[in-house]
Amino acid sequence: MRFVQVIYAHARDVLAPGAGKEFLRNAGMTTIAFGLSSACTFLANVLAARWLGRDLYGTYELMFRASQLIGIFCLFGMTTATTKFLASEEGKEGQILRTATSIVLIQTVVALFLMFLLREQIQEVAHLPSGVIELALVFTTGYVLKELVSGMLRGLHRFIWLARVNGVYGGVVLLSLAVITLFVDVPLYEW
What we know:
Elements: H1 2-14, H2 19-75, H3 78-88, H4 93-117, H5 119-126, H6 132-155, H7 159-183
């Protein structure tokens, strides 16, 4: 409790009068949403490990990590640049948002198309089971959109919306695990 009082006192001194309460409210909501997002992602991983067993869980994790690696080729630092320029350039937000979105969408389409064309070679070189690359490409699309929107919201100082986006992303990860487990022919691990 003392820690919260110290933060509130600091916020009151640094921010305009009355802004300390708003800052703490926004910080609290953001912390809760990020916590829920992390909890959903953690729960998805625990359930995946329990449902799928060691071998299939490894494939599941590999698919998620592959989607994040492919996402690097789709983003190429645009989220960082977008955050920086949105935070520093007054009055040019619309132009920056359109430009960043266009560039990321073009990079994403090109990268996903190339990965789709080269999926058999990638599977062979990386010793991946069939189907992992295709699922990774689907998850890459969601990951790239989440990262792009997160960078934009960070640059616009919309932290509550950023927390909401991360909360939704955590829920989607959990829901996607349930959908994959229910509708894809996966032999479930015996409990």
